[in-house]
Amino acid sequence: MHMVPECVGENNVQVSTMYGYEVGKIREYLAGWGRQGFHVQTVDSFQGKEDQIIVVHCSAARKTRQNPIGFLTDLRRLNVP
C-alpha cells in the first residue's frame, strides 16, 4: 500500500477527522496495513500543528433532534484544518 511518497515518511502525515470515535477506527485500519507512523487526531486536537501532508477525513452524518451534529453549530470548527 503506497499512500505516502518515500521522501516524506509516515511521521510527517496528519490524518484529521471530525469525530473521536473515528480516530480509533482509522488507527485500527492503518495498523492492519502496517502503517502506524501516521498522526491520527480529531480536528480540534490538530489545531495549531502542522505536517507535510494533511488528510482530512469526512464522513456522512445525519442530524436528528436526538442526535444533533454539534461541531457544525460552531462555524469556527469548519476552518481549523
UniProtKB/TrEMBL annotation:
It holds the Pfam family AAA_12. Residues 5-80 form the DNA2/NAM7 helicase-like C-terminal domain. This is DNA2/NAM7 helicase-like C-terminal domain-containing protein. It comes from Neocucurbitaria cava.
